[in-house]
Amino acid sequence: MRVEDRSADARFEAAVLPHLDAAYNLARWLTRDDHAAQDVVQEAYLRALKFFGSFRGGDGRAWILTIVRNACFDWLKQGRTQNLHEPFDEEVHTPDADSSGRTGGSAAGNPENSAASSATAERVGVALEGLPADYREALVLREIEGLSYKEIATITNVPVGTVMSRLARAREQLRKRLRLDHEEL
Amino acid sequence: MDCARAAELLHGYIDNELDALHVREIEAHLEACPSCHALYEQELKLRSLLQAKAPHYGAPADLRRRILASVRSTRRARSLREWIPTGWLQFGGALAAAVVLSSTITYYSVVASNTDPVVDEVVASHVRSLVTNHLTDVASSDQHTVKPWFNGRVDFAPLVRDLTEKGFPLVGGRLDYVGGRPVAALLYRHRQHWISVFMWPDQPGKETAVQRFSRSGYNVAQWTSDGLRFYVVADIASPELGEFLAQLRSENLPR
């Protein structure tokens, strides 16, 4: 038993800490706030440590992202932001975007951006943030993290078919928000 | 297939999630239906826009530090409460406690039959390199790049081999510290698993047989050959580790 505890501790760090970037990215998109994302991810990792005994090996990324995702929705439900299905109000929130640290594609990791393409990144970021949370998380997990439908279904606790229909609706809404049907970006 | 059904399956198609039968159906529909084909083109455009422009937020370095600190303090608190040493033996106190425990708890001695403290150090170093994403100082699959990198960094010529064809590609090397001295650490990959090979000088000409055991869920092997002391740490299964060792040790190596 005690020997198992020792090895479980080492396994914990090896299984979930390498996925911290993916965890933070998901939390950042769901909470739309730097500080909230950091708090939620830290909370999620402590939850994960506590319940690591229930992790039976396998996909550490899906496991920690599930916990992060649930922690995000707990945070959202605490009424600190809008209702899950209510679209994000761009008129109200866009002015906050820069001061709250959302920096679009000009942020860390995209040094090649010109001013014009960073303006496009800004539009894409604002449009994606404007989607309802369940559409947003499906798109972020699919397009930014590159996860499969099966992994997304596990993390978001819905059938694979629901993942596909959510992606369909998410992309449709995003196209409308970006007015892709009418103009080139 | 009607257009409404096609519009939904289109996403499975774009995302490479459809089975062959549905792929054939939707491709036939896209060929026959200009409006669905236009939608398909729009979806491709949206996807490339998202993948090129939507930011991936990396975890701030400060968050990484905070999480490591809180995970470890939680673990330390829990360990003290339950009177169990931590599994993460980079703390001197925990290390001392583990040595004491290993001699007092009977069943424990089975696992701790190898009380070599270096084992804990190399396992901790292996895990730490994964956790902190500090896998290599010199990233190259070319042994003729990696080996010279150690010139002037360690006072011996490390064993660096190209085992790509054997299924163990070289990823790179890094400088590490074990037992208070700089050592060479070579990193190899096997599928999704990492293999760390630590080495430093032993007595010239000394040879010992390979000893293998597991520690903290990792398979470990150690031996001395050609005057170098070796420790291998990996999370691959025992037979695969055996194969790796056979390849690594297979011939007389150029020095």
Task: Describe how the helices and strands are arranged.
The complex is a heterodimer of chains A (185) and B (255).
Chain A: H1 2-16, H2 20-31, H3 34-50, H4 60-80, H5 90-99, H6 115-129, H7 133-144, H8 149-156, H9 160-178
Helix pairs in contact in A: 2-3, 2-4, 3-4, 4-8, 7-9, 8-9
Chain B: H1 3-14, H2 20-32, H3 34-53, H4 61-82, H5 92-104, H6 108-111, H7 117-131, E1 138-139, H8 143-149, E2 170-178, E3 181-190, E4 193-201, E5 211-215, E6 218-225, E7 228-234, H9 238-248
Antiparallel strand pairs in B: 1-2, 2-3, 3-4, 4-7, 5-6, 6-7
Structural description of this entry:
The complex is a heterodimer of chains A (185) and B (255). With 185 residues, chain A is mostly helical. Chain A has two domains: 1-81, Rna Polymerase Sigma Factor, Chain: A; 87-185, Winged helix-like DNA-binding domain superfamily/Winged helix DNA-binding domain (Arc Repressor Mutant, subunit A), CATH 1.10.10. Chain A contains nine helices and no strands. In chain A, helix 7 crosses helix 9. Chain B is of the alpha+beta class. Among the domains of chain B are: 3-53, no CATH class; 133-248, 2-Layer Sandwich (Phosphorylase Kinase, domain 1). In chain B, strand 5 (211-215) and strand 6 (218-225) form a beta hairpin. Chain B is elongated, with a radius of gyration of 25 Å. Classes of the chains: A mainly alpha (185), B alpha+beta (255). Chains A and B meet through helix 1, helix 2, helix 3, helix 6 and helix 7 of A and helix 1, helix 3, helix 4 and helix 7 of B.
